[in-house]
Amino acid sequence: MIKTPYLLFLGDAPDQLSAKVAQGIYDWRPENAVGQFRLPSCGHDLGIADMTLAEGQAAGAKTLVIGVANRGGLISQAWKEVLIEALNMGYDLASGLHNLLEDEVDLVAAAAANGAALHDVRIASEDYPIASGKKRTGKRVLAIGTDCSAGKMYTALALDKSMQAKGMKSTFRATGQTGILITGSGVPLDAVVADFMAGAVEQLTPDNDADHWDIIEGQGSLFHISYSGVTLALVHGGQPDALIICHEPTRTHMRGLPDYQLPSMQQLIDTALPLARFGNPECQVVGISVNTQHMSEDEAVAYLAKVEAEFGLPTVDPFRHGAERLADALAEL
Amino acid sequence: MIKTPYLLFLGDAPDQLSAKVAQGIYDWRPENAVGQFRLPSCGHDLGIADMTLAEGQAAGAKTLVIGVANRGGLISQAWKEVLIEALNMGYDLASGLHNLLEDEVDLVAAAAANGAALHDVRIASEDYPIASGKKRTGKRVLAIGTDCSAGKMYTALALDKSMQAKGMKSTFRATGQTGILITGSGVPLDAVVADFMAGAVEQLTPDNDADHWDIIEGQGSLFHISYSGVTLALVHGGQPDALIICHEPTRTHMRGLPDYQLPSMQQLIDTALPLARFGNPECQVVGISVNTQHMSEDEAVAYLAKVEAEFGLPTVDPFRHGAERLADALAEL
């Protein structure tokens, strides 16, 4: 668990894309962010108060979160001064960079001297159990994609927001670096040792109230050659009651795999549902989430209507139109 | 790579079951075993020459392999004297125990002093790449099971033996601890970090002659809640041209999962083949391997005939009748 709220460190982020972790935290958990800390050369503004480390601390911040990705995922010397000062003031640090905080001797020393925690969310810091497959109480929904990076995290977070707005009981369960930083906890599933993947997902989504929904962030795709094993561990460890299909219709090939075409949504359903029903015979596909960012509004609306007619399932782009209809579908289950 | 040949350390193994790693090495790679080393209290005999450490070394042994599993996978003090003496004489050590050689300070010190290697095949000692999905030359066959421990390793090793006997080009590719100790190399797939599972399988089964077969040891089952992700990484990383279905018909539930019935062989085929064909459109199910150890010879023969008629595929128990018909099926592809 990473202590919240955060002060968001944007460093020298040149643009919004490089600050997408900070942006994600602010978009989805504004209550977790008291302000932003920017170096003079920073070219992006989250639209939240600029604060010094002292001001952030006065506003209650417990952790300085590195909300920026630079080339190569490195921790630059320009950042070091600020990070060490923060540790000396009593902040914890959290990061999703490839370059680990715990590999930087000066940061490790400063953290030790101050009793501060260094959270590298890219590595698995816990021991997880082997999955037991035991039926758990409460309900679970999992976003699964025809490809990686098809909008699964966005869909899950938007669904959580819509369910909360409707007064439903729900918890977003992060399984990747950005999701973990947004919410302060979760499992970095792609960094877990193979034997324990499904067990980590079980532990992440424990027994709960009968009317409570865990909204499990998906990873990879059952058809993505590089990461499909991670996805299947989510399907089996998560024992979902509901699946939401995520699709990006303009892709010309699987992400990172130029020789592979995307599977169709029907192919994904035909493959995923029997596997999911082995773990939970009640599992159903309840809706479709389409990432239409590369379509015009007219194209998007037409495409969503076509898919909805074809599959007979609520089909939305949660970024354009919200996830209310997906929340409704879960409420009806 | 573990240096061969081995001297097989049976320690104080009370029976054949506890010495099954040593037995597996001797059964499948007798040329890798110059002899056995037994403590006075050992209750099993491989039927190979008893040797002292000096005699083993004179016979060419390079590595002392711990071929015994004791309760809890521990390295007992009774073994330590022998292991340290072996290191001092210039042997490497190899082990698949949970209790790692590299966690024993006296062994680590003796190895360092003698320039000897400690091989813990239960941990992944290499960095593996992310899978690329690129089509590789040569052919690959993967054993997949309706459950864990259904005879996949045995089937793969028997198939390798039959193919070698027929003069076909084949290599058994180990993906588990016992297989790695038997052959001296492989990938301990269940110990690999999630993101790199499929990449490790790609690396294990590289480009090869057009008429060469990699026989990939299977792990887990696509329907085993705890380990299915490992299995899917084999299906996608291995890009198999051929699948062999492995089944143990007397199981009353999935191994370690008392609440789960086994899937049918047809269910497994229906699920595995579309996933495998995504990675290799030519993939076919070529045969069925049944573990009939809990059936009489008559029951076994009748069951094999029934399955063969039902699926129209060569169906054998390689332990009872050899794997020649599976090798024939691959030769015909």
Layout of SSEs?
Two copies of one chain form a homodimer.
Chain A: E1 6-11, H1 20-28, E2 33-38, H2 53-58, E3 63-66, H3 77-89, E4 92-95, H4 105-114, E5 118-120, E6 139-145, H5 152-165, E7 169-173, H6 177-183, H7 197-204, E8 212-216, H8 228-237, E9 242-247, H9 265-279, E10 284-290, H10 297-311, E11 315-316, H11 318-321, H12 324-332
Helix pairs in contact in A: 1-6, 3-4, 5-12, 7-8, 8-9
Overview of the structural elements:
The structure is a homodimer of 333-residue chains. With 333 residues, chain A is of the alpha/beta class. Chain A is 36% helix and 17% strand. Chain A has helices at 20-28, 53-58, 77-89, 105-114, 152-165, 177-183, 197-204, 228-237, 265-279, 297-311, 318-321, 324-332, and strands spanning 6-11, 33-38, 63-66, 92-95, 118-120, 139-145, 169-173, 212-216, 242-247, 284-290, 315-316. In chain A, the strands form 2 sheets. In chain A, strands 7-8-6-9-10-11 form a 6-stranded parallel beta sheet, sandwiched between helices. In chain A, strands 2-1-3-4-5 form a 5-stranded parallel beta sheet, with helices on both faces. In chain A, helix 4 links the parallel strand 4 and strand 5. The longest helix of chain A has 15 residues, at 265-279. The first copy, chain A, is globular, with a radius of gyration of 20 Å. The model of chain A has no long low-confidence stretch (mean pLDDT 96). The A-B interface holds A 130-135, 189-195, 197-199, 222-233, 235-237, 239, 254, 256-257, 259-260, 263, 267, 270-271, 274-275, 278-279 and B 130-135, 189-195, 197-199, 222-233, 235-237, 254, 256-257, 259-260, 263, 267, 270-271, 274-275, 278-279.
